[in-house]
Design a protein that fits this description.
This protein has 654 residues and is an alpha+beta fold. It has a domain at 399-651: 3-Layer(aba) Sandwich (Rossmann fold). The protein has 12 helices and 36 strands. The strands form 8 sheets. An 8-stranded mixed sheet has the order 29-30-32-31-33-34-35-36, sandwiched between helices. A 5-stranded mixed sheet has the order 1-28-27-26-25, with no helix packed on it. It has a 4-stranded antiparallel sheet with strand order 2-3-4-5, with no helix packed on it. Strand 25 and strand 26 (357-364) form a beta hairpin. Helix 5 crosses helix 6 (515-526). The longest helix has 18 residues, at 634-651. 46% of the residues are buried.
């Protein structure tokens, strides 16, 4: 049975978002670089109110609506450089959010561990946790409270009988090596009591139904997963380490069951792919729930009480969902949602405490995203808002899953997005994802892909060896192969596109950010006649430098990670470093970098620039003084896309 759809409830309020005119020939950098108008809808526990985020004057603010009338009640805009980060309803009238900050000289918001609380009407607002929480908050009813130099992360946002939620407090250290503590924090006063320290840094903790920490999984300094379990109902800080031979390398706790005896967990124990398993917390016995033969489980769907898993999402090409049981009424509803939006991404952002009303986010390759309110009693959906209404009426390009055999026969997956108007010149942009590990390209709306396709270029994305999402063996096949097999997969994918008639050799550009920026140069040195140009953004170009500079080697497990994925073969590191290979280049480069990048310090770009100058190779150069590892402001995103547009127009025939 399909759910009935009601008319639009919420028209995006134009006083807070400026429209973009879509003419016959739209300004694509402006159109695709524009921020969402409204996003991150969540419903209050009693269903009477909705909250959402907007971007107002380049700052993220929070807005509240009366759910029955959809009248906007209030907006919470932080003064100075403050912005609203991750937020949660903690009762029917109150939200708590991470307070982020944007410095005048840097566009990327930074999180320094602070939590802020506010009621719907704007009352009882103030800092609850963080290094400034001891200060008197002007205009608030709060008294001074203890300051703590620590990062706060949400653990359980359902308050106990004492109006306390659970947070994880990690002391501020330069390398992130400090051991966190679980705190029960009062949602009004910010006062807290300890629930004990965790036994491992970087830990992800799950509580039992009694609100006590039950399981934690984290990383040690060797970049290895450690798992610890605590007795049910224990008030002590005695943790028992789970034997390493009894779990895999991707152990991620999902939910402790209602009886406090078992844990749903994502893991790749005895398999390459990460799937869902059920772990008996007493005997240590694993039982498989679902493991896909090709891809990792990418998401899970739990009941309202967060104690049972009834659905899974896998991304083998297009997204697909598996319902594990029909025992729960929620599973039946989700099945109807999937029937209502076939072939699309369907996510539940929030639900009321009684499970009668849900906020559902639906998106696809040609839909940036739409929020709906589902009413379980009326069995109906009502549209709340589109995230990017300025794209209404624009014919976006569909993304097609593809696969091909690499030169050694290894099967590689990816995506092809064709320009709506095909040209006999078949210009192609190979858009390389970052990482390279633990991430992958997925089917869905991508503003860069759409910008390129609507500009007249076919777009190829390759989930090369080393990418996440296709099992541990696929990922490990890219270790110590950054400039080898990974680039060969990208090159082989490009040659496949040529053979299939989607491109012409010599009329192809490589493009990417971070590792994608690295690949835009490295792959072009390995197949110089195949690529006409490269757009390299925020890339690492000197691998020996990466091992000693930036925030990766400074992290707690950073050196162990780099040793695992790069190794220490100096000859290979030189061969895999674009700064030492630019003499082979025939492609002209467009190099863009943020001056405040800590992941890939700008020294990488400067060394590449010097090497190109020495070799007499052509390039274009643009530094964003107020950006870090990517482009975060709408203005800079538009500037970035405009430079790409002009560069590609000069380099490729259309």
């Amino acid at each position: 049975m399909r759910l009935s759809l009601k008319p639009l409830l919420l028209a995006v309020f134009c006083s807070l978002c400026s429209p973009v005119s879509v003419a016959a020939a739209p300004d694509l950098p402006v159109l695709l670089g524009k921020d969402p108008a409204i996003f991150d809808f969540k419903i209050s526990p009693d269903g009477q109110h909705l909250a959402a985020k907007i971007i107002h004057e380049d700052r993220i603010a929070l807005v509240f609506f009366d759910r029955p009338t959809m009248k906007m009640l209030n907006s919470i805009k932080m003064g100075g450089d403050g912005q609203v980060g991750e937020y949660h309803w903690v009762n029917n009238e109150r939200v708590i959010f991470k307070l982020t900050q944007t410095d005048p000289w840097q566009q990327e918001p930074q999180y320094f561990g602070e939590l802020y609380g506010v009621n719907i009407d704007g009352s009882k607002r103030g800092l609850l946790f963080g290094y400034r929480a001891g200060e008197q908050q002007v205009g608030s009813n709060f008294k001074a409270r203890e300051a703590r130099r620590a990062w706060a992360e949400f653990v359980d946002v359902v308050p106990d009988e004492n109006n306390r939620i659970l947070i994880k407090s990690t002391p501020m250290t330069f390398d992130g090596a400090a051991v966190p503590e679980v705190l029960a924090m009062d949602i009004f006063s910010g006062k807290f009591v300890s629930r004990g320290r965790l036994p491992v840094s970087q830990g992800e903790v799950k509580t039992g139904p009694d609100g006590r920490p039950r399981v934690v999984a984290g990383l040690n300094s060797n970049d290895e997963t450690e798992v610890y379990i605590r007795e049910a109902g224990s008030t002590s800080n005695d943790w028992t380490q789970f034997p390493t031979q009894q779990y895999g390398g991707t152990f991620t706790p999902v939910a402790v069951t209602k009886d406090n005896k078992a844990l749903y967990v994502l893991d790749n124990r005895d398999k390459s792919q990460t799937g869902l398993h059920k772990l008996d917390l007493t005997s240590g016995k694993f039982s498989d729930v679902y493991v896909d033969p090709i891809v990792d489980v990418s998401d899970f769907i739990t009941t309202t009480d967060q104690r049972a898993v009834y659905g899974l999402k896998v991304d083998d090409g297009r997204p697909s969902y598996l319902l594990l049981t029909s025992e729960y009424d929620e599973a039946k509803v989700f099945k109807d949602l999937l029937a209502t939006f076939p072939g699309e991404n369907v996510n539940i952002t929030s639900r009321t405490a009684d499970g009668k009303k849900w906020v559902v986010f639906v998106s696809s390759d040609v839909n940036p995203g739409t929020y709906y309110l589902y009413d379980h009693e009326k069995v109906s959906l009502a549209k709340l808002s589109d995230t990017k209404p300025h794209l209404a009426g624009v014919n976006l390009a569909p993304m097609e899953p593809v696969s091909f055999a690499a030169a050694d026969g290894y099967k590689i997956h990816g995506y092809l997005t064709k320009a709506p108007q095909q040209s006999s010149e078949k210009p192609l942009v190979v858009l390389v994802h970052g990482g390279p590990h633990y991430v992958r390209d997925r089917w869905g709306f991508d503003p860069e892909v759409q910008f390129l396709a609507l500009s007249g270029y076919n777009v190829l994305q390759v989930n090369y060896r080393g990418s996440g999402g296709y099992g541990q063996l696929h990922q490990q096949a890219g270790f110590k192969q950054w400039g080898g097999l990974i680039q060969q997969d990208i090159i082989d994918g490009t040659r496949w596109a040529v053979a299939q008639g989607h491109a012409k050799a010599g009329n192809i550009c490589l493009m990417g950010a971070s590792f994608g920026g690295y690949s835009a140069v490295q792959a072009a040195t390995m197949a110089p006649d195949l690529f006409k140009c490269g757009v390299a953004v925020a890339g690492v170009y000197d691998l020996p430098l990466m091992k000693v500079s930036g925030d990766t080697p400074e992290a707690y497990y950073g050196k162990a990670f780099l040793q695992k994925v790069l190794g220490d073969d100096q000859a290979q590191l030189a061969q895999f470093s674009p700064v030492q290979q630019v003499g082979k280049l025939k492609a002209e480069l467009l190099i863009m970098h943020g001056a405040r990048d800590e992941r890939a310090p700008i020294e990488h770009a400067k060394r590449l620039k010097a090497a190109l100058d020495k070799a007499g190779k052509p390039y274009q150069w643009l530094v964003f003084e107020d950006e870090t590892h990517g482009f975060y402001s709408e203005t800079n995103q538009t500037i970035y896309l405009k430079n790409v547009q002009d560069f590609l127009a000069k380099q490729l025939k259309r």
